[in-house]
Input
Amino acid sequence: MEHRDDIGAKLGMWIFIFTEILLFGGLFLVYAIMRNRYSVEFHQCAHHLNAFIGTVNTIALLVSSASVAMSITAVQKGDKKTAVILLFVTLLCAAVFMVNKYFEWGHKFSIGLYPGSQLMLTLNHGSIMFFSLYFFMTGLHMFHLIVGGIILTIVAIKVQRGAVNAGSYVLLENGGLYWHLVDLIWIFLFPLLYLIT
Amino acid sequence: MQTESVHITPYRTYAWVLIALMTLTLITVTVTWINLSALTVAIALIIATVKAYIVLTYFMHLKFESSLFRVFVAMVLMIYVLVILFTLSDYLLR
Output
């Protein structure tokens, strides 16, 4: 019989999540101090972000998180088909998020607003800080979203092939934990960047 | 081996959790329309914390894991709160 330690595997995943919390935690701390120092500029710059797109993306991520969680239930019940469909819904929501982000960032790039651009250099220091933090934090978050999407695609294939099944599904659980982390970070990014006007 | 008593969360629970999270999101968005100045950020952060708690408890399954996981998460969050407090106290009282 193969040796498995699911509790250990999950604990390892959690320890990795802790390092992520400290990574983003540091950035939130920078945000807090810069917002305190440049509150007027942060206030004005947040008007340039589209709160509607932000809200749509928040809802897309919440739905995607719920469907990953539900896919674990489906696998536990041995319902392979539903599990794969639910994972597909998650990836679809991730795609919606990415497309929205593409248009959001694309618009800013088209008006010359991106890190290191001539326009950025003409702005005051507070605005540079806001947009730098905006691009870096949402960019790092997007990177996590892409990685999570790749992980969940692999897991979905394994569910389809039966390698992840009702008797052994810790890979799906850990992939899910990673995905919820992406959701968790966005829960704080969204109000702090989009809703502080 | 999976533990003997595997907890299967019903779909219904996740659906309710999703509805709760969406409601909280809509509340946050609505609150920013009403201008409460300094309170807006505080309310947004409180709602975000409640949402994070719900995600950790239900989606990330902490409610049904062994208490070891909950203790670990609580410890890490406490360390992070300490980091915030020490940094801000240094910055604001300098």
Summary: The mean pLDDT of chain B is 90. Residues 66-94 of chain B form one domain. Chain B touches chain A through 47 residues (CB under 8 Å).
